[in-house]
Write a structure and sequence with these properties.
Blueprint lengths: L7 E7 L3 H5 L11 H17 L4 E6 L27 E5 L10 H7 L2 E9 L1 H14 L3 E10 L8 H11 L5 E3 L7
Length: 182
Amino acid sequence: MMRNIKNQKALIVIDMQMMPFIWKDYGGKAIDHEKELLEQIKLMILNARAEGAPVFYIMYTEKGESYRAEGKPLWQVHPEIVPEKEDVIVVKYFADSFFETDLESKLRESQINQLVLCGVQTEFCVDTTCRCAFSRGFEIELAEDGHSTYDSELLRAEQIIQHHNQVLRQFAAVKPANLIQF
């Protein structure tokens, strides 16, 4: 049940689907600190639900017969953090969780003006969603230990995450997941 107060806060869980977690099993890279990431996000989901704050799951989706198409196995949320019936699912096709989705209208309808962001991938969907949420007038908290990525050709994942935690302070309050309150 959602709280009905002036400064409604929601948890936004970005792209925590199966694909990023199994890519390493098929010749790809491993998501950095995946166990710790799942633990931090699980903690935030439990805290949000305990306080009656809504939880939104953003689902990166590909069209057609892709393994990442809606409803396919790689599209599903990681089993450790599955949505409950009262959680909101938002399907997206781009890095920006707001672009061509109903996320903003769902947030506004629920009088939500504060967002807590977490998920993957740091330098793409998390970064883009943070900046776009800021541009739309939302107050944002970014869980500094609640987003992750892969090593790139130039930087280790840890460097990418630290860099984005620093840069995104221009748009969000960046703090450890265990200090975020709902």
